[in-house]
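Moderator note: this is an archived Q&A kept for reference. The question asked for a predicted structure of one protein chain; the sequence and the answer are reproduced below.
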Amino acid sequence: MADFDLVLKGTVVLADRIVEGGHVAVRDGKVVHVGQGAMPAAKEQHDLSGALILPGAIDAQVHSLSQKNQEDFIWSTRSAAAGGVTTIVDMPYDEGNLVCSAEAVKRKVEHASAQARVDFALYGTVDPEEGPARIAEMVEAGVAAFKFSTFGTDPKRFPRIPAALLEDCFRAIAPTGLTAGVHNEDDEAVRAAIARVQAAGITDYRAHGLSRPPLTELLASNQIYETGAETGCPAHVVHCSLGRGYEIAAAYRAQGHRATIECCIHYLTLDEENDVARLGGKAKINPPIRLRAEVEKLWRHVAAGNVTLVSTDHVSWSEDRKTNPDMLANASGVPGLEVMVPLFVKGALERGIPLTRAAELMTLNPARHFRLDHVKGALEAGKDADITVLTPEPYTYDAAASGNNVVGWSPYHGIRLPWRVSATYLRGRLAFDGKAVLAEPGLGAFVRPLPTLLSSGAR
């Protein structure tokens, strides 16, 4: 009689150790144990010698609905499954629907549940005209965190939250124990820089970096962390492109404040002088891609433990919104769900960074950050059997050829990757077999934090 439903054997990569010749045993969609040596009896056994077995990744920053009639969860979660991502955390800035009330959360959960192929959690935000009045009801509705912006991309869909209102929101969130994540660009400084670039007549690839120089990002990061320190609310910078930003976050943590910081995979992969110069609008992202020297600084912060999370900030804009010769006229953001895990593994191995960092920054820490670690975040007994298998099969990434993306372009097109996602398991079920996404729409489920009993904001 089989002891388990599924056993996978290979090199098991955990956040605290690597188990050579290890195995993961699964029953009823949950991890039962991680062991070493001979595989126990199971209904389904796979000896994957030479493969890496990691906990399924949690992408902390996904925009499934930024463009109407474009991607949606049907495609974002397909890309996720193909990339070894078993949970996405979706942003609240949906075109036509700012997720700023319990009713909006409920609508989005219902909408996504019918389409999702992997599990999902949700961010909430506020309407500046309402302020923090609906924060409590969104916590009750199950949001995993809140998202704000110090820069106003759009007054309705992606509004700026002024300093006083940001403080009010942080104070309202603090007792819940959830985190306030903030897009970190100073509105006044960015607009002044944009005006200077336009006055100079610069329209090529250089325009974007010049319109958002480092100080615009660092000023906002300091505001975010100081607001967190003042209110007792966990403060999170949702994407930092600069080594200096990680130093600032580390300084606040050293002072005892809850100051976390996220690095997107594009900041660890692409650079301005080569990739932005070559790709133009297809590499336009806010904050901007920086110089190669800055990319290497970020990897040093990864190695030093100064990065809390690694994510994609995934958004699949249609190609016509990313190919304008006027750099600043393009939409900001890129797709990345299908390649985040292989890209991080490639970068880490090239720099001698242990792969335990992959399990830590793309699974364990995100699960803790969003308070989903009662079911997600590790290959541990009782947690969901979300598993990613990587095999040493060098290949050149081609987003159009994979068929798992709603758009056929990627800033990572042509990158040679040494490890391929050859299987993704969601709660013990094979969601991707290395060639095709097997997970049907509706397999994915809404994941919410456990209710908190905190009243002081302290964890």
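Archived answer notes: The first strand starts at residue 4 and ends at 13.
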